[in-house]
Amino acid sequence: MTAVETEKAPRNAVFAGIDTFVNRHASVLPTVAAAVILSVLLVGANIRFDGRFLTPGNISALLLNNAFLMVLAVGMTFVIVTAGIDLSVGSVMGFTGILGASMLSGGVPAIVVIPTMLVAGALIGLLIGVLVQYFNVQPFIASLAGLFLGRGLAYVVSLNSIRVEDPVVLWLQTTRFRLGDWYITPTGIIALVVVAIGALVMQYTRFGRTVYAVGGSESSAELMGLKVARTKVMVYVISGLCGGLAGLLLTAFSGAGYPRYGIGTELDVIATVVIGGTLLAGGRGYVLGSMIGVFVFATITTIISFMGAEQSWTHIIVGGLLLLFIVVQRAIVARTSRTG
Amino acid sequence: MTRNNHPMGQPTPLVEMEHATVRFGTTLALDDVALRLYPGEVHSLMGENGAGKSTLIKALTGALRLDAGTLTIDGTAMRFATPYDAQRHGISAVYQEINLLPNLSVAENIRLGREHRSHGLISPRRMEREAAVVLSELGLSVDPHSPLGSHPVAVQQLVAIARAISTDVRVLVLDEPTSSLDSDEVAELFRVIRDLKERGVAILFISHFLDQVYEISDRITVLRDGALVGEYLPTDLLRIELMQKMLGHDAPELLSRPRPASAAVPAEPYLKGRGVTSSLGICDADVDLAEGEVLGVAGLLGSGRTALARALTGIDALDRGELSIDGRPVRFASPRAAMKHRVAYSSENRRTEGIVGDLSVLDNITLALQAQRGVFRKIPPARQRELAASWAEALRIRPSDLDRPVRTLSGGNQQKVMLARLLALSPRVLVLDEPTRGIDVGAKVEVQNLVADLATNGLSVVFISAELEEVLRVSDRVAVLRDERVVDTLESATLTVDAVLALVASPETTEEGE
Asked: What number is the ipTM of this complex?
């Protein structure tokens, strides 16, 4: 057959150059954009508040106040890169927090309580993962079930706030390692270690690369002989585990367990992950980007409180940023998928 | 059936499939098929779309399980649950639709899953080095670090092959590996195939390019309608015989016109366009389409073929120019408006703009008619079934099960479902954009004959195709497009492919064949 098909003439060389650049670096661009926005926010706030914003104390506090959010964001990054979603993390955090507080107040030693909290979170994650993978339930629905389950269990454990007096758990928050005016608590260290491990696993392990592969194309990953089923279950287990750890950090941070903790937090987490450059469609994103996303979120919150404005503004601004980022990501995806 | 015994003096085949049977619901996709692969041979698997080639290779590579029959590797019976299992036993496949990951690097696409790890950690640099070795073996110079999605399809295809050969591959399945390669790249691929052959790899090669099949194959297995036709040596099998075995009927049909060209253009054409111009790619086109005429449209990609079709059917608004039907001027504000004047359009993008894969054959056929009637005048179910059945019968849609999801049909049958949907609207003018793209020879002939039959019954057809032979075979007259303009409209009876090519290609040569 004489198939008379030819390519159209190449476009302008400059555009081609930009195209090549965008294609080659498409996956990092949103994260770079997030870093730029974070810098602009920090520097802008510092100018606005006459140098009182970018102080070691304030920056240290940014991390400490949001350690739990950062841990949740790491788990959520794994899930979203597989093109899934985990709505349960806020409830899981609330449930494991109240569970831990209740066990501690009953005299169970921290050495038992802490692993129990982590396992409880991981089990809820496992349940969601199995629903998604083996019962073909939409991640949205499966994790919504996880959300209700976690919240329900939290109320079953206690309807009221339970104070935590355990020295180990309180040590996590009250100890301050200082370096000049900078300081960090064990909770902050845990959050940073989780970020580091998360980034390492995502970039340098077969499991981590399979997470990206599943997000890129599940059927291709399957045909390439990658272990898709195991990976898809594991990301929810990881997210649940992070939920349990966040429960511990939040309990230490607030000095109490409370069954209503973490209502709506899952949406904050998703927002920070997306702002950090992870594509909701899956296949692209970075754990370090999600950390930047959390800092963007935290900085906006702090700026609002510096200005003495109503905290609802945080969500309005974050909402705006989120819209902007999703539009930018769509544009990048549209550009790169054209050549694919 | 001419089955010859171990061609290379090999005592046992590396792969032996016997009585292989796969059912989809009540249909037999694979019916008692046998396949033998010997080490160091290139074995071509031939058949039309829907003959069972894909099913067979899916069963071989663990993507699908056999309902009955056996698969033996090296004399040991196997049951692969996943492609991973098959790959562990040295069976890899490269599929026609590239099944790789555009979001990961070239190196990862080649090595992921078999990469070297120390303490559980991957070394991206080592991975890229390993990938570079395989790539250079293929004579491919791409940066292993670059994302796969940033490369053209041909490169991606070669990367897929690089992945398949980067392990201890013993059986390599190549499903239409050359469809997106140019002739140099094909030569390079064949060099690699011969190299693998030397190393004792068994290669199962699937291609619809007969030249390539005859060039590279040691043996040929032919399938038709899910059943085995036979296993042959290429030296014993003439091409025309191969075609006949694939199609199950005489090949001369391929060479003759489906009906004599009717060159007579009546004084007043049914559909008339003057100076048809749309900013989306067609300029000053004059079109005359008589009742019962097939007007072919020939031209390069981007010459305005599709833009003309869209302008004629109300999808793109006209910037200038006028259309008239039966002498009365018309203006189509939308495809719906065109449909009111019984002008129907079938898109070149069957998958995205045509069929609804998850709906049944019946729903797909009645979809447009129901839409035209509006939601409040629902076609009674019995009437729907009757209507769909009659079209499925008339167009010989196979399998004839009306309740099957359309996506499970072969490309040719999907195309027929599209046609049935349009014909159910009883149009007077049918604009077909690439109706035979991506379907096999047998289905092509069927679609072409169908178009001829429809025209004989008084339907006017605009037939657009990138394949010139086909345009010439089917049409009464051919409008040749170049650079978004109609260069000439010629009678196809006296026209040759070369004459049209000359017209399409360069502005200097005109007047030919006039």
From this structure: 0.83
